[in-house]
Write a structure and sequence with these properties.
TIM Barrel; six-stranded mixed beta sheet; EC 5.1.1.1; isomerase; alanine racemase activity; pyridoxal phosphate; binds pyridoxal-5'-phosphate; 347 residues
Length: 347
């Protein structure tokens, strides 16, 4: 195997969905945008549908069409970017439900596909997507006159439970949706953890399903194993890698692994990330290059065929923390060169 192997535990994914579902008294959907946070939307969504998810969310109509082909008819597929000018055929043919974001999208959708269901996304303070309170006040009658299935909004600060923005967005969303007769949705993973006031009729977890914070009780879903191409002995004073940023202080054994920044192991990991042989950490030695990592394996009794960069000893969030980013970015950067191996009852 010349490339790394990304092991994906579909049972852990399903267990995380059930665990989040058990924290609310309402319906739990699943967000599988960005190819299921990098893990493969078709496999992830199929496993989640078996676990009981009936509504899925993606970012774009193109993602929705791909997902429909994998899931078949039945589950509802909602699209956050709504109905864009080029989306009509995809929405019709793949039976997608756009979350309409403004007056132009509402008009476009009602004119092009008058019978086709839609949701409405409201802006409750994040200022990213959705109708502002004044737009909504003007459009609500028209929106409610058609096959409206959902009214939703998104929290900007749900990973910080004490931030006052949460209560403010809750107040705004509650006010904007008073008297609405269709299901309402405000919470993603963070919002579920904020408690029942935030749950409404439907939640939309993403990151927590895939084992990431802020769902700290999540089971890990991924293990990323990178094969050793070559090992060498380096004498004290010799350098390793581009820019000579690592200099051996002792006789050092260096293993060269097949993966690099082209595979989502960002260059900022240089000098920060560790590789694991079981529970034993081995530091990166020198810079991450495009296709290769160099690792100090001197302290291992023997060099294994592969080392792990994501594993129980170094989770997605540990790696994110060490390199100044978030687990979402680590996951969604995992590149197409890895062989994705699925395990679990639902595989
Ligand atoms: C990505 C996204 C989600 C899922 O968020 P997580 O933090 O991954 O749970 C839910 N709703 C919207 C609008 C999103 O963009």
């Amino acid at each position: 195997m010349g490339t790394g192997t990304l092991h994906i535990d579909l049972d852990a994914l399903a267990a995380n969905w059930r665990a989040l579902d058990a924290r609310t008294g309402c319906e739990t959907a699943a967000v599988v945008k960005a190819d299921g946070y990098g893990l493969g939307a078709a496999r992830a969504a199929t496993a989640l549908a078996r676990a009981g998810a009936r509504r899925f969310f993606v970012a774009t109509a193109e993602e929705g069409a791909t997902l429909r082909a994998a899931l078949g008819q039945g589950p509802e597929i909602n699209v956050f970017s709504g109905h864009m000018a080029t989306d009509t055929a995809l929405i019709r043919d793949a039976n997608l439900t756009p979350m309409l974001n403004d007056a132009a999208q509402l008009a476009r959708h009602r004119a092009a596909l008058p019978q086709a269901a839609y949701g409405v996304q409201l802006d409750s303070g994040m200022n990213r997507l959705g109708m502002e309170p004044a737009d909504w006040a003007a459009l609500r009658g028209q929106a409610e006159a058609g096959p409206l299935t959902l009214v939703m909004s998104h929290l900007a600060y749900a990973d910080e439970p004490d931030h006052p923005q949460n209560a403010e967005q809750l107040r705004q969303f509650t006010e904007m949706t008073a008297g609405v007769s269709v299901p309402r949705s405000l919470a993603a993973t963070g919002g579920i953890l904020l408690g029942p006031d935030y749950h409404f009729d439907l939640t939309r977890p993403g990151i927590g399903l895939y084992g990431g914070l802020p769902f700290d009780a999540a089971q890990p879903v991924v293990r990323l194993s990178l094969p050793v191409i070559q090992t060498r002995d380096v004498m004290p004073g010799e350098h390793v890698g581009y820019g000579c940023t690592f200099t051996a202080a002792r006789p050092t054994k260096i293993a060269t692994l097949s993966a690099g920044y082209a595979d989502g192991l960002i260059r900022a990991m240089s000098g920060k990330a560790r590789l694991f042989a079981g529970n034993t950490p081995c530091p990166l030695a020198g810079r991450v290059s495009m296709d290769l990592l160099t690792v100090d394996v001197t302290d291992l009794p023997e060099t294994p065929e592969a080392l792990d960069i994501l594993c129980p000893s170094q989770t997605v969030d540990h790696l994110a923390e060490a390199t100044g980013t978030i687990g979402y970015e680590i996951l969604t950067s995992l590149g197409p060169r890895y062989a994705r191996r699925y395990a679990g009852e639902t595989a």
